[in-house]
Design a protein that fits this description.
Layout: H1 5-21, H2 26-33, H3 37-49, E1 53-56, E2 59-62, H4 64-87, H5 92-102, H6 108-117, E3 140-141, E4 150-156, H7 161-169, E5 177-183, E6 187-192, E7 195-200, H8 201-204, E8 207-210
Antiparallel strand pairs: 1-2, 3-8, 4-5, 4-8, 5-6, 6-7
């Protein structure tokens, strides 16, 4: 099924919203893409006619076919990020930006080959599971951590560019250990890789950790 890039992006966002809260709403999509209600309404009507979504009581959910397409796009995106960071050495932001373009053009056989070359990674560089992998993500937000304890970074929750850029700069990456030295009202003093760092509370809300 050939879809426009915009429709594919809406499918991906609905998929992510379903994972987070079980469904999506029109207001979620308007906020995420900064577009008019009319634009979203037309897109949803088209996706509904194509059998990709179902709408009930203002809630939007993917059909099995819609979920299949969304997972293919997300798999392509996250493997592209792995290729660009692990093999080519690009930073998170550049890799994330390029992956948004590449996810729409990779043929299925190329995605499978990329997966093999990369050694079938479980997650993207930010810790999000690659569809098709049996990965259970658990933990608490960094903002909920306790003073004096040491944790391991599991995932960067939202992949907004400001979040990825700041996390990359502060070396907050999945697998890294982070020790909570002091929690202040608006920021946290932590130790990462023997370096003392100050993490804004807004960023701490976007980092998943576990013990």
């Amino acid at each position: 099924m050939e879809l426009s890039e915009a429709l594919e992006n809406y499918l991906k966002e609905i998929y992510e919203l379903e994972l987070m809260k079980g469904y999506a709403r029109v207001s979620d999509l308007i906020f995420s893409f900064n577009v008019s209600p009319g634009t979203i309404s037309k897109a949803l009507e088209k996706m509904e006619k194509l059998g990709l979504i179902e709408r009930n009581s203002k809630r939007i959910k993917l059909t099995p076919e819609g979920k299949k397409l969304a997972e293919r796009l997300i798999r392509a995106h996250r493997l592209s990020e792995r290729l660009l960071t692990d093999i080519l050495g690009l930073d998170w932001i550049r890799a994330h930006q390029l992956a948004h373009r590449l996810e729409h053009i990779w043929p299925e056989d190329v995605i499978d080959k990329m997966d093999q070359v990369l050694g079938k990674p479980l997650t993207c560089p930010h810790g999000h599971p690659i569809p098709g992998r049996e990965v259970k993500i658990t933990g608490i937000k960094l903002s909920e951590a306790e003073n004096g304890k040491t944790y391991k970074v599991v995932m960067i929750i939202r992949e907004d560019e400001w979040i990825l850029s700041m996390a990359d700069e502060l070396d907050i990456k999945p697998g890294n250990e982070i020790k909570i030295i002091k929690k202040n009202e608006n920021d946290f003093i932590v130790e990462i890789n023997n370096q003392i760092r100050t993490i804004p509370k807004a960023l701490a809300e976007e980092v998943l950790i576990n013990e």
